[in-house]
Amino acid sequence: MPADTRLNGIHFMLPTPFKENGEVDIAPFKRLVDCAAETGCTGVVGLGVMGEAHRLADDERTAALDAIVEAADGRITVTVGVSSESHALVTRRTKEAGEHGATAVMVSPGRMAKPNEPVLYRYFEAVQAVTTIPIVVQDHPGESGVFMSAPFIARLNAELPDARYLKLEDPPTPPKITQVLALTGDNMAIFGGLGGSFLFEELRRGGSGTMTGFAYPEVLVALHRLVAAGDIDTARKLFYDWVPYIRYENQPGIGLSIRKYSMVKRGLMDTFTTRPPSPSIDKPTQDELDDILASLPDIPAV
Question: Which of 231, 212, 215, 213 is closest to 223 using CA atoms?
Fold first, then answer.
């Protein structure tokens, strides 16, 4: 386990690599985690939406988790997605994450036929009852179908000792950061997501960093460092220079395949295969992506 397990800064959201035949490919996890560590990320996140966790069998989840923790080797933190559709399964996955060496668990609500806060609270309460590591509350209604208000998030933070972090993906994210921080103060660190689309504004609103699978984490690390140093003008230029790629990568539906394609071009993975029904990008999209990449400035040195 890392000596400092506090979560902060840029966390690289890991995809699950697949072979051409659709089987999980464990070997590239080492390259992906090394990339995160070597580019200045403070952590990685595995088995989230980008990791296609909902399409993995239990033995595939465990193999991926072990590969990520082994590759991290105490250099950076490891947050593991444990979200599920039942209290029984989310608690089982939470205990497994702690037993296998994760630093924190990331928990998004399961889909609910009639979303209501009492049932939603009991879901997170069940995680608190079994966890031995911190909880990252994932607020992603576009995926979960469940909206969590700022007061409800603040209640989780106040009443559940390990609900110390928020992964905020409920746009518009900058105003919600202000709302949550007004209620939680320094007791909850907030991370963005959504491909870093609003990271510049999120950091200026008091966000602690981001947890996203953006294929060029060096850009996000440099942006975080510039804002922390108060060099807002340089940070703004860096962000705006990369907006064309950020915009293109963050397309609904095919964003995962785009990120995987870019990671293959970087040598981090061997295929950009996704597990159906996740769509793969077609040849014209690949050509458009190559055109954007060719027009971007140099990747920042970190």
Answer: 231
